Amino acid sequence: MFTQIKPMTIQEFITFAESPENADQIFEFINGEMSEVSPARTSNSNIRDILAFLVRLHCRENTIPCYTSGEAGAFLIRGNILVPDFAYKPTPMSTDYPDSAPPTLVAEIISPTDEAQKIRDKRNIYRAAGIVYLEIYPVPQSVDVYRPGTDMQTVDSTSVIDLGDVITGFKLDLSEVFKEPV
Fold this sequence. Notes:
Helices cover 25% and strands 26% of the residues.
C-alpha cells in the first residue's frame, strides 16, 4: 500500500495517478494527502452492484437520466479527488481524470479494515459539497444517511430510504441491498 511521504499539489497528484506505471492502481487525494485505495471485499462489490442495479432499473423504468460509477471512478470534489464505492449523477460521466462534475448521491461500503479518519474525512467532504451520502455497514447491516442540512440518520436492513430528492421517485429498500443471493 502506498503512503505519501512529502506534500504534493493536486496537479502533481493527477500527474502521478495518470502515469503509465500507476495505471493498475487507484489513488485518492484527500485534504492534500495521497493514499492508495486498497482492494475491497467481494461482498462489498456485491452490495455496490445491487445498489447500481436498483438505481439503474428505477431510472430506466422512469426515463430518468442515470450515470453510475464504482470504485474506478474518480471525482474532483472541493479540491479533493475521491473514489467512492458507488456514485450516481444525472449528467454524463467525464472521460477526463478526474471527473470535475461531482455526483449527487454517493455510497461508501465500510469494511472493518477501513481507517476511521479517512471515512470521516470523506464524509465531511461529501457533506460540505451538498452530496447525499450513504455509509453502508454490511455488518451489522445498517446504513448511516447524511443529507445536506439535516442530522445523520441510522437505519437498519428492514428500512426503506426515500432518495426521491436525488432520483425522482426512488426508494431504496435495504432488504434488497442486504439480501443473500440465491
